Every structure is written in C-alpha cells, then in structure tokens.
Amino acid sequence: MKLYSTNNKKINTDFKTAVFHSLPPDGGLYMPRRLSRIDPVFVATIAMHSFREIAWEVSRVLLDGEIERDALKKIVEETVEFDAPLVRLDGDVCVLELFHGPSMAFKDFGARFMSRVMAYYLEKEQKDIHILVATSGDTGGAVAMGFYDVPHIRVTILYPSGKVSPVQEKQLTTMGKNISAIEVKGTFDDCQRLVKQAFLDGELNAKLSLSSANSINIARLIPQSFYYFHAYSQLRRDYETRDVVFSVPSGNFGNLTAGLMAWKMGLPVRHFIASTNINDEVPQYLRTGLFNPRPSFHTLSNAMDVGNPSNFTRMLELFGDDAAAMRRMITGYSFTDDQTRAAIEKAVNEDRYVMCPHTAIAYAGLKRYLDEHPRENVAGIFLSTAHPCKFPDVYEGYAKKLLEYPERARAMEKKEKKALLMENDFRTFREVLLAEA
Ligand SMILES: *Cc1c(COP(=O)(O)O)cnc(C)c1O
Q: What span, in angstroms and rounded, lies between the C-alpha atoms of 304 and 139?
C-alpha cells in the first residue's frame, strides 16, 4: 500500500511511515493511492466465510507486500477476536453491534489492529516507543485495552478529572502493566494541550521516542472496513438478499470513511447515511456544497461532538471533490438531544432494544431515510458503536430496567483504579514522563 498526502499527491509514502507518523508533514492526511478490489467471486460467496476469513481477505488485498503473510494473519486474528453480530430489530432494520470487544466500543477494532501493526515493526527493529493519548472517554479506553501488554510500547493516557463516565474511567485506570493513566485537574482541552506540548519538547522526544495513537491514523481505518463486509455476509446468510444501506453515527467520520473504502473495494452498497448530532457540518455540506467547520457543541452523544471532522478531507478525496457525486452516495441527517432520547424510547418500546445515544442517532437516521424512500426494497443496517451500559445516566423508566450490564462490565467495576492525580501543569507532566523513562 502506497499512500499520498491529501495536500500533495506527489508524495509516495509506505505503510509503515504512515502508521508511525499518523500525519504527513504538510498537514494533509495519508490516503491509499489505490484501493484494490476484492475478488468478485469472494464477494459473491461471502456468506460462506467467517468474520476472520473476511478480515484476512480484505487486509491481504490492502497490505500485501507490506507485512509478511504469517505475521499479518496473526495480527488479523488478534484484532477480530470477538464478533460483530447483525441483529434484526424489525422487518427491514438491522443493527450491527460493534461493542463486543474489551472496551465495549467499535474503536476496539482500530486500536487492536494498530497496536499489533506497530509492535510488528518495532520487533523487527528492536525499538521501543511511548505513546501519549489525551481522551475525553471512548478513545482512551480502546487504546488502553488495545495496547495492553503489547511488546515494545508504553502508553500514558491523560483524561480530565470528573469528566468521563464511571465505566470509562475504570477502563482507563485499571489495566496496569504497560498502560498508565494520569487524571488531570482540568478539561479535555487541557489534556490535549499537555500532550501537544510534550511532542514539541525535543529532550522528551529524544529520551522517550514519543508517538501518538491518533484517530486519523490509517491503521485504524483499515480494520473498520472489515465489519462492513461482515455485515453484508450475515445479511446474505440469514436474510433474503437485498440491497443494503448503512447508517453510521459520525463525529470524525473515520467509521463512515472505512465504509466508503469497503464500497470502493467492491462491497455492494446502495447508499450510506451520515447521521450526526447537532454538530452537522457534513450533513450541511451534503445539502449546500459548503463546508463550514466551527467549534463543537456539547451533546448527549459526546463522542460525536466534533466541529471540524478530521476525515472529511478523505471523504472529499474519495469523491474527487465533487459534492454532487458524494450526494448520490451519502445522505446526511442531524438530530437534537431530544430527538436522540425519542429514538432511544422508540426502540425500547417497539423492539425492547436499548441503544447508546450515538447508536440512537444512526437508528433515527436510518428510519428517516427509509421513510423518505419508501419504495426502495432495501435492508437497512445501522451501526451500534458502543454498549449502552457505558452511558447509564441517559436511561430512565423502562429503558433503565432493560439495560443490561455484561459480565465484563461488572468485572471491571470490581477492579481498583490506579491513576496519578495531577495539576494541569506541563512541568509536572514532564517530570512524570521522565521518571518513567
Ligand atoms: C468515536 C465514536 C463515534 C464517532 O466515530 P467517528 O469515526 O469519529 O465518526 C461514534 N460513537 C461512539 C460511541 C464513538 O466512541
């Protein structure tokens, strides 16, 4: 896989460089030069293949020549260690549950794949790195668990004190081994500032080999394309075959971009729905052709509170900067917190299914699309990005009664929190990091 920068098509970077640097130096984003097509015979017979076989086929086609086959196979097997089942709610509507991994959110796929790809290259060169992450919740949990006990990598996670949910905090602070957590007396922005400042500090970088687990890293997108194929496979296997539309709850649009990559690789998709909260820059772009990034608003679906979605440039790239072409393939809808709550209620009352606020937005988006296109004989799949038990404060009444805590959530609750409480102060942060080196 050769990659170019969205700011300079002449750049030709290999996969390894893109993984360790996350971003090209010119401020663009790395983009695969070619998305090879999956063998049409494989796609036609996809219902016969397991999730792992599908993931292996997709990664082999994308990464052949970059990572030795046996090693890549092992990376894929460790990434897809849990299922992503397709659950039917009613006739036309299915939910793809992406929360069966260790952190109970879809970000597990990206974090697990990326950590193992990094470890593969580090092992070859006998090098170690130290990853710094600032998190407002879900990203940190997936990174903590995805990088846990992975050789050659230390991880330090910064999170804002009192501003993450109890389940999220446990995920960040109970892993141990190569994962440590710092609870910052400040906001998420403060955490991000501390991390950015560390990357600019020459001495720290030299001593620790700092790296990031950035959400726009190409190694996080690739494994997210696996489950779109797997969803289609389950649809073909269990239900009468029909065209499929995917509704994706979106913030930075990594998940939707991965779906578009799967489509470009030959997955038959009729249409995508970009479902957002009131941070609706992309739905607005799809309506007007104008993109207006702005500061984000706080909402109930806070992992999607993004005012300037970082993968939007990649989406433009996939459609040759043509709003009309993008519009033919993607419809955008946005929903308020009240509409999000109403969607949660509706699914609870009609289908006895409890969904997290992010998922509820994808559900609402799919419902609206199917209402507006009643004659299309399609199956609709909406992506469930997190387990509802991560957001216990959202639910009341019947929903609260139905809400289940899986065994791994309860086990997590019993574990002891270990975090260093720290002032929002760079000099202290610096000393902490150097003491670990
Ligand atoms: C990160 C996240 C999203 C948004 O995904 P993007 O790839 O940033 O669009 C949606 N739901 C949950 C639960 C998340 O953690």
A: 12
